Amino acid sequence: MDISSTGLRVLRQIAESGSFTAAAARLGYTQSAVSRQAAALERSAGTALFERRPDGVRLTPAGLTLLRHARTILDCLTAAERDLTGTVPRTEPVRLGLFLSAGAAILPPALARLAATDPQITVTTIEGTTPTLVRALRAGSIDLAVLTSRPPHRPLDGESPRLHVETVTDTELVVAVPSTGEFAGRTAVHVDELLDARWIAAPASNSVSLLGVWPGLPGRPHVVHRTRDWLTKLHLVAGGFGVTTVPSGLSPVLPAGVSLLRVEGAPPELRRVLVARLPGRPTSALTAVTRAITWAA
Q1: CA-based, 20 to 30 A from 172: which of 83, 120, 212, 279?
Q2: pLDDT higher than threshold 70 for residue 89
């Protein structure tokens, strides 16, 4: 095969982004340029590497095989560049992905612990949904991901080999409400009382449901504000502009004016916090970061 490093980077970005359009935007290319690179890769490989689906682009088994080698080749090129320029890494880098509420509750104490126990490790982070972060892991764009899953806790994706997954903790969902008003002074709310609530939620997508509305709520929710940012959600709650569903683990970082209530009259909504990585023996840095995340959670 005659494949350029540019082609391999395009392959990796398509795998992570899930579409040619998103890959082009992240790489700074036109969509037609990415499409040409994809077609050239398939010609050189002599087989289909991409599966075009209504919800985006996924790699075929052959594409996943090439991606596995692409990660190694691109890492070797980065190492070669360091050797040629004489750049000696002073730290052990770890690229960490986190689900959208983990940044507030888990990341700061985990980084503080790492600074005390393993100061040679440098962590860089990105936020994303669980499907997005799983694709980034597969593409080799991140080394470790903090994810969530809901019962019955199926595999994170259908690709092979399966990701290595460790359970960090289980957390219960609760409802964040204004500390004043109809729910003032309470510790619980019946699910029927939430039927007419004004909800603050993240927009839904093809791969992610509406985040913020109580999952077991019967009927059609009345969503008044849509935002992915947790700080915005919680400050809207504090201002009395609606309610939202949050993991109970967010309690240490709540702004003033927000209370958390358990939901009665419905089955508990549990979420599992996971740390995932590619299969194989982890580096000492990955082990240390995983240990710090487990401690923080």
Answers
A1: 279
A2: no
